[in-house]
Design goal:
Elements: H1 4-16, E1 22-26, H2 29-38, E2 48-52, H3 63-73, E3 78-82, H4 96-101, E4 106-108, H5 112-121, E5 126-133, H6 138-150, E6 156-163, H7 165-175, E7 182-185, H8 187-193, H9 199-203, E8 209-211, H10 216-232, E9 237-239, H11 251-260, E10 261-268, E11 272-281, H12 290-293, H13 310-314, H14 346-353, H15 359-372
Parallel strand pairs: 1-2, 1-7, 3-4, 3-5, 5-6, 7-8, 8-9
Antiparallel strand pairs: 6-11, 10-11
């Protein structure tokens, strides 16, 4: 198996024969963090660019969703259960962290099943789980909805913001704001949906796609595969992450998604409303849908934070340090936008690692790979 350095050398060889610059986009928050942390971007040829897209589910969640969560948290009989990243995301009227400091019952859980267990233990309170995520986490949430229905647990519901990655990728290509030459497809999502899910994007929209793992050598190999497709004039959906991803994905997880959710048009921060990109709870499980339980929430008037460029960062149009707030008014300890909050956010990754890493990081990763032996 080739080392990280050998994959990087192959990238340099491919790039040397190009007559133009190429831009590839990764759409996974873990890829974003890995690319910054390892210094991979700094080792790419000047005519090969890797940009981050809308791969952080917390980051693409719109302010209105936070406002809904805040309105539910303000109800004395409601417990809001959420993953930790969502607590600090600012909405129009503040964050759930601020609401908790003012007496709201907001609890951090580590899995959707923890939220369901909380509903079992607190039958006199309504437990609302904040269902934010892509196809990676959505099946586990669907399972809790199904369990709640089967067990007649009436005090558990989900405030849904689940999204599908592929429609967002297709929307970016159709929009054409960023001249993309290929996608580094998300590994975690692809475990569920399978590598063949990207074939329409490759075949019909002419966009090379490679499902890639998260180690430095994975990403370097994936970029090499993308470059090879461009050089050979191919537009295919390939799979570098074969040790975890199959062509068909996880049939059981996909079946669970289809049973509990339906596709819906939903809003993405920075991308607007994308048709069929959301997962909404089906009518058969309506009692587990928080929006149907509380259809008339009193929400503040929506506004955009002045100066925040999260939307442009999520579309690959702007690097984080080109935002006027970056590192000044907006820092991890005082985030203005969600891209600085989430551990997978592009702004947070750039703040912690941008410009601070060099070839030593990738060389160390390559040495660690050699010590582990073949990983794929």
């Amino acid at each position: 198996m080739k080392s990280t350095q050998e994959h990087l050398q192959k990238i340099r060889e491919y790039a040397s024969g190009l007559d133009r610059s190429l831009t590839f986009m990764e759409v996974c928050g873990t890829h974003t963090m890995a690319a910054f942390r390892t210094g991979l971007r700094s080792l790419l040829p000047s005519n090969v660019n890797l940009v981050s897209g809308p791969g952080c589910p917390v980051c693409v969640t719109v302010d209105q969703y936070i406002d809904e969560a805040m309105a539910l948290a303000a109800k004395p009989d409601v417990i809001v259960a959420t993953f930790g990243d969502m607590v600090r995301v600012p909405g129009t009227g503040g964050s759930l962290q601020q609401a908790r400091s003012q007496g709201a019952d907001v609890r951090v859980v580590y899995s959707p099943s923890d939220a369901l267990d909380l509903a079992r233990k607190c039958p006199d309170r309504d437990v609302v789980f904040l269902g934010v995520g892509f196809e990676t986490t959505a099946p586990a949430v669907a399972w809790t909805v199904k369990c709640a229905a089967e067990e007649n647990i009436d005090n558990y519901s989900v405030l849904g913001a689940h999204k599908r990655v592929l429609p967002a990728m297709q929307a970016l290509v159709q929009d054409g704001e960023v001249n993309l030459d290929g996608f580094m497809c998300p590994g975690h999502v692809s475990v569920i949906i399978g590598s063949q899910a990207y074939e329409p994007l490759a075949r019909q929209q002419g966009m090379p796609c490679v499902v890639t793992g998260f180690e430095a050598f994975d990403m370097a190999e994936g970029l090499g595969m993308l470059l090879q497709q461009v050089r050979e004039g191919r537009t295919e959906a390939e799979n570098q992450y074969t040790r975890a991803v199959t062509p068909e994905g996880n049939p059981a997880a996909k079946s669970m998604l289809d049973e509990v959710f339906r596709h819906d048009d939903v809003a993405w921060r920075g991308l607007g409303t994308i048709p069929d990109s959301g997962l909404s709870i089906r009518d058969e499980y309506a009692r587990c849908d928080a929006r149907r339980r509380w259809p008339d929430l009193d929400l503040p008037e929506r506004r955009e934070e002045q100066g925040c460029r999260c939307g442009e960062v999520l579309r690959g149009l702007r690097s984080p340090d080109a935002c006027p707030l970056f590192g000044k008014a907006c820092t991890p300890s005082n985030p203005v936008g969600p891209c600085m909050v989430s551990t997978e956010g592009t702004c947070a990754a750039h703040y912690h690692y941008g410009g601070a890493q060099d070839a030593v990081s990738v060389q160390s990763a390559s040495a660690s790979q050699a010590e582990r032996g073949s990983a794929g």
